[in-house]
Amino acid sequence: MLLLGGAGFIGFNISKYLAENRNYSITIADNFARGKQDVLFNELVKKHNINVVAGDYTDPRTFDLLDKEYDQVYMLASVVGVDNANSIPHEIIRINTALIFNTLEWIRRSKIGKVLFTSTSECYAGTIDAFGYTIPTPEQVPLCIEDIGHPRFTYAVTKMLGESGFLNYSRILGFEATIVRYHNVYGPRMGFKHVIPHLVVRFRKGETPFKVYGHDQTRAFCYITDAVQGTVLAMEQPGTNAEIYHIGTQDEITIGDLIHYAGELMGFSGVYENAPTYPGSVSRRCPDITKARTQLGFEPEVLWKEGLQKTIAWYNQYLEEGNKVYE
After folding, report:
1. 84: left (phi > 0), else alpha (psi -120 to 50), else beta?
2. Cβ neighbours of 272 (radius 10 Å)
3. Is the pTM of this model over 0.90?
4. What is the CA radius of gyration of the chain?
C-alpha cells in the first residue's frame, strides 16, 4: 500500500496505525516539507521496515520512483492551514492542483485497486451561512464558498477539484475511490499553523489581555486517533466505492469554550478579550456523521477536553525541550 503524504500529521498517524495493526507492505511518499524526517518518523520507518520515497510530487517525473501496482493508495498530500491559505494562496493552488493531477495521471498508467482521497469540511464553508442548511450537516449538502477571490478559500477549491477528479477518473478508469471529509482534526505533532498549537504558543508568550478571535463561532473537533480509525474504516470496508464520508464528531463547542479551557490547562490567570474573527471564517460547523456510523461502524471515542489535554501536554513538553516552532 502507498501513502502519499504519509509523513504529515494525519498521514504519519495512519502509517503508524497500519504498521502496528496490519500486515501490509507500506510505502510512504512525501517531500518532507512539514516536520522533516523527525525522530518519531525515523523510528517508525526503521521498526516496521517501511519503504520511503522522498521527492517533489508536484513534478510528475517523481512518480516514476514508485511501483506501478498498489492495492490501496491513501492520497493525503496537500498544503493545508488557514495561515498558509491567507499568505501563499497562489502556492496552495499550484501545489495542491499539481499533486491531484499528477496522482490521477500516474494512476492512469498504473494498476491501483482503491484510492482514498482526503478532503475537508472547508468545501462547504459557505453553505450554512449563505443557504441555512441544517447543522449537524450531512454529506449531501452542496459544496459552496462565499467569495471565490478570497485567499482563505483556495484550499477548499483544490479539495473540490480533488473530490471531482478522483470520483470521475475512478469511474472511467475502473479503480475504486472513496472520499473522506475531515472536520477539525487535531492532536500532537500537527505543526504550528493550526488553532490549538497556535494557542499554546500565545499562552506561553504571556499575551494579556488574551484575545479570543471568533469567540461565538462553533466547531466540532476530532482527535487524531478517531480520525485515523474513521479513515482506515473508509478504506477497508467493502461497498464504499464512490462514497463520501464525514470524519469528525458531533460534539459542537464554541471557540470561546476551547480557548478558555486551553487557558485553564495552561495556567492562565489573566483576562480575556473577545475580538473579531479571522476573515472568511464561518460561524458554525458541525458534521452529521450518521453515514459513517451506519456504513463504516465509525464511533469517535475521545471527548474534546480529553484530546485537548493530551495535545497541549505534548506541545508544552515539545517546546520545553528546546524544540522550535515549525509549520
Report:
1. alpha
2. 16
3. yes
4. 19
